[in-house]
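Would you mind writing out the residues of a protein together with its fold in token form for me to study?
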Amino acid sequence: MATRLEEHLACLYAPTPQHPEAWIPAGVVAGLGADVCDRIGLRLHQALAEPVRHLVDAGGRRWRPGLVAEAIEVLGGDSERYGPMCAALELAHTGSLMVDDVQDDSPLRRGLPTAHGVFGVATALNAGTNAYFAMDRAIRMTLADDPLLGGALRDAFLAALRSAHAGQALDITGHHTEMEHAVATGDARQVLELVRLSHRLKSGAMPAAGFEFAALLTGAGEDLRQALVAFGEAVGTAYQITDDVADLTGVTHHGNSTKQVGEDVRNGKVTMPLAHAVTRLPADRLRDLWDVVRTPTASEQERADVRSALLDCGAATVCAQEADALLHRAWDRLEAVLPRSPRVQRLRDMAWRTVHGRTVA
């Protein structure tokens, strides 16, 4: 699947300019001369494809399409037939990273300057959101003769996009009120609930949709479909929890940093380790850390001290345990209804590596 996935990505987002109808509905440019279409195709490629390819070509783990393809195979389907949709899931994720990097003013992604740093904010935002529409093209390419199934897949995908945007909205607005309450009272329940919900929506919804795709494409029964969706959500949520931890130590690939260390602390975010630290640090120490996190002018040394404290108090360990517990619960439910297949263990191993084998997003 890995090699073919790159081919499917290139089919949806070609590395060279295409006819304008790769991007806009057929007939819109009818009657225009070939030279005009060539110029339009070049401009659309520069404004829509190149910013996305910048991030796609930088690598990434491709775990979302990989897991969905493996789930399709476990269920007796042919993942290669649905390769374009698996690729479109990766493109949607890539687009969300581009938008997220603008919102966080991140300088680095996958070891390269972020898309907005290279192409500008306006282009990165437009190209990033345009990547969501690759799924519609992929469904048309794959299921042109099955509008009912295509409609069900679009419903699942759009529901995931709505959830992801709601999660991002919660992430942007932050959980400062709840964190302030936790610091004042020592009660972390509210802030933990909101951080968990944000993670489920922002990071769990799209993998859940991918696993729902696997169920729909293979005609799985309702119990199995629900278990697949729950497992996909668990994998995505657990991945985000461990990503919160990875932000404290940095993420490297072949010895190079793939993104800036401590971005969450620098951006004043309330993360899972910070929320779990409420019950693991003395009240005065917690107050000092929280004051640094919410102060935009805090020094790099102060921020480094926050990261060290969150690691030393055991909050990061608790996050890893929570991620594992999520995975185990969802897997136990799924395994009980999966068909017998030698690929079942492979699916499980891939999920655990996804969550705990941190390299690049």
User: Anything to note?
Assistant: DSSP finds 17 helices and four strands in the chain.
